[in-house]
Amino acid sequence: MAKIDLDPEFASRFPEGEGDGRPPCQLYLISPPAYDPGFPEVLKAVLDAGPVAAFQLRLKDASDMEIMRAGGVLKPILAAYDVALIVNDRPDLARELDADGVHLGQGDGDIAEARSLLGHDAQIGVTCHDSRHLAMEAAEAGADYVAFGSFYDTATKETVHRPDPSILGWWTTVSEIPCVAIGGISPGNAAPLVEAGADFLAVSGAVWNHADSPAACVAAFADLLRA
Ligand SMILES: Cc1ncc(COP(=O)(O)OP(=O)(O)O)c(N)n1
Ligand SMILES: Cc1nc(C(=O)O)sc1CCOP(=O)(O)O
Ligand SMILES: [Mg+2]
């Protein structure tokens, strides 16, 4: 099963003094808001363009059947690229799809219930807005990653919280659980979040609405994250 958590052996691959014990920041794609039959081909081009750690199926206006159909088509593609499939909001659908995990917002249900439904290996991510307290609570409740945002303006979703990037650096000093930065992130504004300590950049609009192509945007992220 694809994993998006920190690889405990990773730090030992750095010679002493190099790296800070955490793997380099990776890209975590959030799906376009609506599923299009042509999307699998777009996704393959994107996954050919640069490394992607995880893909979240986030179809807020779709029926359960539409989510299941989309997930069923995308799952083997993601598996072929070793990209974790995370389902937004719905542990029950994540289980039905045999996905790699679920992302829960603060109103999306209990972490322990999702864990008992999905099992030990599942990746459970939790939205923590700009709150250190919510992040500590999520970690104590068994989350596999915490997500902070929205760092920038975004047209993808109405947001009210605007964390300072320093929350990412703080998190890396208090927890080994990865932190995800989300909200309006593009190759042009991501550097401060990477420098602050983001383990993952979660991105939707900048990729799917890119002026040239989604693949060009993923290639630009790859350049940034390699640097
Ligand atoms: C990686 C990641 N971080 C945050 C969110 C937002 O989740 P939530 O607050 O539940 O809002 P919706 O996405 O459900 O509208 C996320 N989906 N992914
Ligand atoms: C789904 C989501 N959650 C956010 C949060 O702040 O919790 S911001 C956001 C939108 C992410 O898409 P884009 O990369 O297009 O801004
Ligand atoms: Mg949600």
From TrEMBL:
<keyword id="KW-0460">Magnesium</keyword>
<keyword id="KW-0479">Metal-binding</keyword>
<dbReference type="InterPro" id="IPR013785">
    <property type="entry name" value="Aldolase_TIM"/>
</dbReference>
<feature type="binding site">
    <location>
        <position position="108"/>
    </location>
    <ligand>
        <name>Mg(2+)</name>
    </ligand>
</feature>
<comment type="function">
    <text>Condenses 4-methyl-5-(beta-hydroxyethyl)thiazole monophosphate (THZ-P) and 2-methyl-4-amino-5-hydroxymethyl pyrimidine pyrophosphate (HMP-PP) to form thiamine monophosphate (TMP).</text>
</comment>
<dbReference type="InterPro" id="IPR036206">
    <property type="entry name" value="ThiamineP_synth_sf"/>
</dbReference>
<feature type="binding site">
    <location>
        <position position="184"/>
    </location>
    <ligand>
        <name>2-[(2R,5Z)-2-carboxy-4-methylthiazol-5(2H)-ylidene]ethyl phosphate</name>
    </ligand>
</feature>
<feature type="binding site">
    <location>
        <position position="89"/>
    </location>
    <ligand>
        <name>Mg(2+)</name>
    </ligand>
</feature>
<comment type="similarity">
    <text>Belongs to the thiamine-phosphate synthase family.</text>
</comment>
<protein>
    <recommendedName>
        <fullName>Thiamine-phosphate synthase</fullName>
        <ecNumber>2.5.1.3</ecNumber>
    </recommendedName>
</protein>
<comment type="pathway">
    <text>Cofactor biosynthesis; thiamine diphosphate biosynthesis; thiamine phosphate from 4-amino-2-methyl-5-diphosphomethylpyrimidine and 4-methyl-5-(2-phosphoethyl)-thiazole: step 1/1.</text>
</comment>
<dbReference type="GO" id="GO:0005737">
    <property type="term" value="C:cytoplasm"/>
</dbReference>
<dbReference type="Pfam" id="PF02581">
    <property type="entry name" value="TMP-TENI"/>
</dbReference>
<feature type="binding site">
    <location>
        <begin position="56"/>
        <end position="60"/>
    </location>
    <ligand>
        <name>4-amino-2-methyl-5-(diphosphooxymethyl)pyrimidine</name>
    </ligand>
</feature>
<keyword id="KW-0784">Thiamine biosynthesis</keyword>
<dbReference type="GO" id="GO:0009228">
    <property type="term" value="P:thiamine biosynthetic process"/>
</dbReference>
<feature type="region of interest" description="Disordered">
    <location>
        <begin position="1"/>
        <end position="23"/>
    </location>
</feature>
<dbReference type="GO" id="GO:0000287">
    <property type="term" value="F:magnesium ion binding"/>
</dbReference>
<dbReference type="GO" id="GO:0009229">
    <property type="term" value="P:thiamine diphosphate biosynthetic process"/>
</dbReference>
<feature type="binding site">
    <location>
        <position position="88"/>
    </location>
    <ligand>
        <name>4-amino-2-methyl-5-(diphosphooxymethyl)pyrimidine</name>
    </ligand>
</feature>
<feature type="binding site">
    <location>
        <begin position="154"/>
        <end position="156"/>
    </location>
    <ligand>
        <name>2-[(2R,5Z)-2-carboxy-4-methylthiazol-5(2H)-ylidene]ethyl phosphate</name>
    </ligand>
</feature>
<keyword id="KW-0808">Transferase</keyword>
<feature type="binding site">
    <location>
        <position position="157"/>
    </location>
    <ligand>
        <name>4-amino-2-methyl-5-(diphosphooxymethyl)pyrimidine</name>
    </ligand>
</feature>
<dbReference type="InterPro" id="IPR022998">
    <property type="entry name" value="ThiamineP_synth_TenI"/>
</dbReference>
<feature type="binding site">
    <location>
        <position position="127"/>
    </location>
    <ligand>
        <name>4-amino-2-methyl-5-(diphosphooxymethyl)pyrimidine</name>
    </ligand>
</feature>
<dbReference type="InterPro" id="IPR034291">
    <property type="entry name" value="TMP_synthase"/>
</dbReference>
<feature type="domain" description="Thiamine phosphate synthase/TenI">
    <location>
        <begin position="27"/>
        <end position="207"/>
    </location>
</feature>
<dbReference type="GO" id="GO:0004789">
    <property type="term" value="F:thiamine-phosphate diphosphorylase activity"/>
</dbReference>
